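Let's practice the habit of predicting before peeking. Look at the sequence and jot down your guess about where helices and strands might fall. Then scroll down.
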Amino acid sequence: MNPKQQREVEILTRVEAGALDVGVASELLGVSVRQVRRLRVRFRQEGLAVGVHGNCGRPPTNRTAPAVREQILVLAGPGGKYQDLNVCHLQELLAEEEEIVIGRSTLDRLLKQAGLRQAAKRVRRVHRRCRLRRAAEGMLLQMDSSPFAWLEARGPHADLVGAIDDATGKVLFLRLRPSEDQIGYLWLLRSVAQRYGLPMSIYHDRHTILRSPKQPTLEEQLAGQAPMSQIQRVLAELGIESIAAYSPQAKGRIERLWGTLQDRLTKELRLAGISSLEAANAFLPAFIARYNARFAKAPQDPHSAWVPLPDDLDLNYYFALRETRTVRADHCISFAGRLLQLLPAPREPSLVGQRITVHVVPEGDIYLYHGQRPLAHRLCVAPAPAAPQPPQELLPVSQPAAPKRTARQRAWLFGQH
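Done guessing? Here is the structure:
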């Protein structure tokens, strides 16, 4: 018997000998007086065995079947389908894919007993001041990009561009790009704005894509302007506050998201047999929906802070990369090695010598604007090169005539000097 059972038997022995009152025994054992009397009757009949619970030694009715245990160990063991999944992720996929329902703690204990998982090591952490979540959804977004072997050895190395809502922990956007670039962040901003609306502020790191490192020129200083990156300009024009973090821990919510996705998403992409960025991006919407259903939290304030987009907002004007060009005398501009011809209406003023902006949307399409007025244009296609002429027959080359000599030259040659 264990110490607890020995103590119970000792108390019942003193009650039977009259050294303890039934009321005092009930307080010591933490049971009712009626239960002490029942134990006293059993003690007279069974003796010391009264301290041993009746279910001791019996197999539990809710234990995992041996066949199910073996199936789990095969799936989670070396070379198994789920060999490197963490316990929580493994529990979810066993229920969804294998129809095996098992408790997380039971699964954790089973894997550790079989030596397939190790207890996590304690890491000494730096203590920082806690920052509470924002109250309402849409008040603060955190966006970032994570370079990682998301497709492992099956595909190219890529960057995952994403955004998460600070109030709810809801993943709002994920997209794989060959590298961290402006186009990926334009996809993010436009997709979030179209689906949810405009957020009040965005928290991001100090990458030069998101924050210009240039010093202001004299003209900018006189105009009270600061140099901006393309993404900074988009945020400023849409009225979104841009907050640059001084450390990864400052935007820890999305940094922790990368750690979770590097563990979960890579395995799910592997299980789905995905080996290209296009197929992975098509897989991501369903993954985001399942992730948010599992991990997203309800906000403190049920009233959303999203600002809906106006119906007449020109998305191609705001969510695009911009460059400035001067219109030539033939109403053409040169951009990215191409010649674009402006097509002004008959009564519109001439734009020769005027500065216009070229807007390139994430899909790669080009739009021209004079201020905020869109301009019609077409691509000037260079004429096809002329077909090569067949080689002509070679004509005999005549010998050049001998040069005529002057009288002085003749006299010198023939000794007449």
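How did you do? The radius of gyration is 39 Å.
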